[in-house]
């Protein structure tokens, strides 16, 4: 993605002059001005001011601007020159060019500007710094060559220094995080870019900006969260991220947001912050044994927050609901601590309520229930008391073969743990369901159903008779 900053200093000009006439007139002026500037016949700064007006007013003219011989050289000369206003206007031109969707505006053609844009990140002007940041960010998505060039030119330490200098200016913090995201989101970033970022000292700055500012809005927190998400997903060195507090900070924020969501307080765009936080936590949980991560997972309210997200966003953002249960699955897998907490906090009934919903939600819920049942008889009894047996009778009737498979797996854990649970399943008319499943088109499902009938349920019926 790319972003275009609006120049708030420019006044809108009135009038009803024909747009095409204005375009052709200004285009001719820019052409003449660039040619004259190359010949040193006019003020370079005046030329750049006219150019930025042309580019911002008529984006369709970007290719024609680039075709002017010496146009980029004029911009670079002014960007690197001693006059602040000329530098600003040149930076605006490069920003307009970097945002262009036209194929002729190749980011590689703008590479002459990158050393100066990087250098200016250490400046004191927040507005100018923000302009340079978004220009660099816009150049990254479409060009691997540009990303490699920026890495060699020292963009990573420059960005880290920039966020340190402007740490109290949230607009700049947001721009830095966005630029980092553009750099580390590429498939090739795990080679050199992400290790450089992890070693740069950036992580504490991203973590400190995760908490939303009520006056400024969610923007900086969202961008920092997405940047962390790309780093976590790369799996380059998640141990470093955990050691620097990423897991602890992300889970703490999810607990806070979960409490607000459960009370009905959902800010517009909040899902854009929750989503990367969930992915950070889910991926960091896979970075090592859960026991080793326990010191970073001190708040069991995270479980309640995850279920709250799933319930609240179930209809508006079902994929986010599924993501929440995915994190819950990663927490409860091979963890008696979190499985016990699910029962102690009485969260299982809320989880069971999600079983009727498709789009991968019910299969993920069944995975979590299976994780809990895996710990033995007492856990299985609590699950049955929460109403799981009747819920399984419903999921076994579903057309989704994956849902039926997981339902049979969970049912097998329950009835194998206690004959009373098997008896209760029979009382709820479970036998006819399994007998019908024996005619399922998938062999693995038929085998599972037959195994349950022959080893756990039919013998019990014979004893009762």
In words, what does this structure look like?
The protein has 465 residues and is mostly helical. Among the domains are: 1-6 and 18-105; 376-465, Leucine-rich Repeat Variant (Alpha Horseshoe). The chain has 28 helices and no strands. It has helices at 19-38, 44-57, 62-67, 71-79, 84-99, 114-119, 126-139, 144-152, 155-165, 170-184, 193-198, 203-208, 219-234, 238-243, 246-262, 271-284, 290-293, 301-312, 318-332, 336-344, 348-352, 361-373, 377-385, 388-395, 401-417, 419-427, 430-437, 443-464. Helix 9 (155-165) packs antiparallel against helix 10. It is elongated, with a radius of gyration of 29 Å. The termini are far apart. Residues 11-17, 20-26 and 38-42 have low confidence and may be disordered. The chain crosses the membrane at residues 20-48. InterPro entries: ARM-like, ARM-type_fold, Armadillo. Keywords: Membrane, Transmembrane, Transmembrane helix. This is Transmembrane and coiled-coil domains 6.
């Amino acid at each position: 993605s790319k972003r275009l900053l609006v120049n708030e200093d420019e006044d809108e000009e009135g009038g009803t002059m024909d747009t095409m006439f204005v375009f052709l007139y200004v285009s001719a002026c820019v052409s003449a001005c660039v040619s004259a500037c190359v010949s040193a016949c006019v003020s370079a700064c005046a030329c750049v001011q006219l150019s930025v007006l042309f580019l911002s007013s008529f984006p369709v003219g970007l290719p024609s601007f680039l075709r002017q011989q010496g146009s980029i050289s004029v911009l670079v000369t002014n960007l690197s020159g001693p006059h602040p206003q000329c530098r600003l206007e040149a930076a605006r031109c490069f920003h307009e060019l970097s945002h262009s969707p036209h194929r002729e505006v190749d980011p590689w053609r703008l590479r002459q500007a990158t050393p100066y844009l990087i250098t200016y990140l250490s400046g004191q002007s927040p507005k100018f710094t923000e302009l340079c940041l978004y220009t660099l960010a816009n150049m990254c998505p479409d060009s691997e060559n540009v990303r490699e060039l920026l890495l060699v030119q020292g963009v990573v330490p420059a960005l880290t220094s920039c966020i340190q200098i402007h740490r109290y200016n949230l607009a700049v913090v947001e721009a830095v995080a966005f630029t980092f995201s553009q750099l580390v989101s590429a498939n090739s970033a795990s080679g050199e870019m992400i290790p450089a970022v992890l070693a740069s000292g950036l992580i504490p700055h991203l973590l400190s900006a995760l908490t939303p500012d009520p006056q400024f809005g969610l923007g900086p927190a969202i961008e920092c969260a997405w940047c962390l998400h790309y780093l976590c997903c790369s799996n380059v060195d998640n141990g470093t991220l955990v050691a620097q507090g990423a897991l602890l900070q992300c889970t703490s924020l999810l607990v806070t947001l979960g409490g607000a969501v459960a009370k009905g307080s959902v800010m517009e765009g909040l899902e854009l912050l929750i989503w990367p936080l969930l992915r950070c936590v889910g991926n960091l949980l896979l970075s090592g044994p859960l026991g080793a991560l326990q010191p970073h997972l001190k708040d069991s309210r995270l479980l309640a927050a995850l279920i709250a997200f799933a319930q609240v966003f179930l209809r508006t953002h079902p994929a986010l609901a599924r993501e929440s249960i995915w994190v819950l699955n990663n927490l409860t897998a091979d963890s008696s601590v979190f499985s016990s907490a699910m029962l102690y906090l009485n969260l299982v009934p809320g989880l069971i309520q999600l079983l009727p919903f498709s789009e991968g939600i019910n299969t993920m819920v069944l995975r979590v229930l299976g994780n809990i049942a895996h710990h033995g008889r007492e856990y299985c009894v609590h699950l049955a008391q929460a109403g799981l047996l009747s819920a399984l009778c419903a999921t076994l009737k579903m057309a989704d073969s994956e849902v039926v498979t997981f339902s049979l797996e969970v049912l097998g854990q329950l009835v194998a743990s206690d004959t009373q649970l098997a008896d209760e399943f029979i009382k709820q008319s479970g036998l006819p369901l399994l007998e019908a499943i024996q005619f399922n088109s998938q062999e693995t499902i038929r085998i599972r159903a037959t195994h349950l009938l022959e080893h756990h349920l039919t013998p019990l019926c014979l004893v009762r008779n």
